[in-house]
Amino acid sequence: MTDILQQDIQYLPGVGPQRKKMLGEELGIMTYGDLLQNYPYKHVDRSRLYSIRELTGDMPFVQVKGHILSFETFKMSARKERVVAHFTDGSGKVMDLTWFNGGKYAKQNYTIGKEYIIFGRPNVYNGRINVTHPDIDLADKLELSAMGMQPYYNTTEKMKKAGLNSRAIERLVKTLLEVLKEPLPETLPDFITQKLYLVSRDEALRKIHYPQNTKELERARVRLKFEELFYVQLNILRYASDQRRKYRGYVFSKVGDHFNDFYHNNLPFSLTEAQKRVIREIRKDMGSGRQMNRLLQGDVGSGKTLVALMSMLIALDNGYQACIMAPTEILAEQHLQTIMDFLKGMDIRVALLTGIVKGKKRQEILDGLLDGTVQILVGTHAVIEDTVQFAHLGMVVVDEQHRFGVAQRAKLWSKSQNPPHVLVMTATPIPRTLAMTLYGDLDVSVIDELPPGRKPIVTQHVFDRSLPSLYDSIRNQIHQGRQVYIVFPLIEESEKIDLKNLEEGYEVLKQVFPEFHLSKVHGKMKPADKEAEMQKFVSGETQILVATTVIEVGVNVPNASVMVILEAQRFGLSQLHQLRGRVGRGADQSYCILVTGYKLAEDTKKRIDIMCETNDGFRIAEADLKLRGPGDLEGTQQSGMAFDLKIADIARDGQLVQIARDEAQAIIDDDPTCESPRYDLLWKHLRELRKTNINWGVIS
Ligand code: ADP
Ligand code: MG
Questions:
Q1: Pairing of β 321-325 and β 393-399
Q2: Which atom of ligand 1 is closest in space to residue 271's alpha carbon?
């Protein structure tokens, strides 16, 4: 029975080789099962007939039974004509049906006086009710009671041209459901469907296409969403449990000289309670004999780097090397700097490896890694290349995890005999439901406290016509000894124009602030120049840094207290939040100024409002998820796991994600090796899914 769902779509009556090709290319439908799981995006109630008298211009789709009285043709241009059919339901009322295209076909195909059911969205034209391009069926062919809710399917322009519109797909689905006479096999055990009051899979898969009413539709959707989320969770948790059993973690039993030296002699401030707690959690993991896989969430400026460094020192104390990986060169360089500063006077060899480290220097580092003399490696993606080999890598930190996927993380594991302990850090907090799905195999630590003395950043929205008074405030701040960032948008597609904007803007700003010194950095500069310009700002030689988003992550200048973001409408929420995180690092009151034009799209307004309202990264992340949907969030494309979701929506179905997670966890706890016959059904189906779903294979 499972096999019939694997059946080639070509053999479904009404398909054939040509449509098979079209369905495959346009919608990825290859089998009966694919068609069955090509869910409609909406339904329209077709159980009710309206009389023309009831119709108004602002109704959704309606249907009317009646007959055509006459056709009328209007010339619109030499080639184009508009065809109108006058249609009555016998009540004495007449409405119009209009065709701008295909009118000729309509005149030939529909017969005056014959009984039809027309279907469409009514509007009012010339004082009469009108339906443009209606669906028309012979009345005696349509069984209304059986029609219920009519499904609507996504199609493409190409498909429509070939006659494969939503109606055509609907017919194919109808045929398919008739072919699938026997009940479709269940994929959830009874104890779950009963406990959660879920309808059977057979019922759900039929009703998702043809429900009798909205309630049936809803029940079908819940069942299918749950199933989808449940198997994603089961797969992640199975994977985590597998890893745990398969790999021993290195046991870092002691805290030694490096850690203690640093703690007592080098640490310039005391740790926050949250930092202490997280370091305890990490130490416990690393000493447990189990490989650590921990996600560290902490808002911008919460002091994650320090936690990472202290964890790496524990690895060193136990005779292992450590590595920290950042998403960009600048950030890697900055990490190197920070770490070197922290470790000043200590005898620890730290090296930087990025794509631009080449030749002899690179070879030296590679050698040092192999003979174990390089103890801490700081780098970008470059460190996951195969040529980078360690003597004994014991711990890996991945900063800004949301830019790395599961597959990339997995690659790190091949770099040592046992997999190293892994700490992934993100400053863009990930909403819980998303974290559970994306990084569900990770334990989570949270730094929920900022270092003391920080004042919340004040965020304001300013229209660009008030720039002059903004400049005055900036001047004022600088006179008080502060420094200022001014950020221009630089978005890849329009890089050239943006760069010009930045250059011109820089010249203008130089004239606006003749009494100050300005630095300028952007991604197209030579690294050495960039470094030099940054350095001038860091040392206080320049007071204003004009920059693109290259400063988005990591840059740390505590004396900078104003962040001005120009054309703020062009930035996403998480980007804005990251940029804002560059200020508020010292003890002074900091400001973030979002500058936009006067006219704003609805979404932009929402983004700006949220920014002005809160500094809480978690709230911002939730809002971002709602506004953009998970597929657009940074990193989710590469995450390669959860985003093949066909029907569930992580942003909206948060509660179901949690329920699915709990159910899956209970099963894994009960049967960690995934072989109990009690759950045979589940393991079998999971294997099927993993075979057919390429992305799911990635994490095996
Ligand atoms: P993020 O979590 O965004 O990576 P960083 O690690 O860059 O934050 O830390 C931000 C700033 O706070 C740095 O200048 C860092 O030295 C400082 N910092 C970190 N921990 C503390 C602390 N416990 N007390 C005071 N300052 C701290
Ligand atoms: Mg950081």
A1: parallel
A2: 23
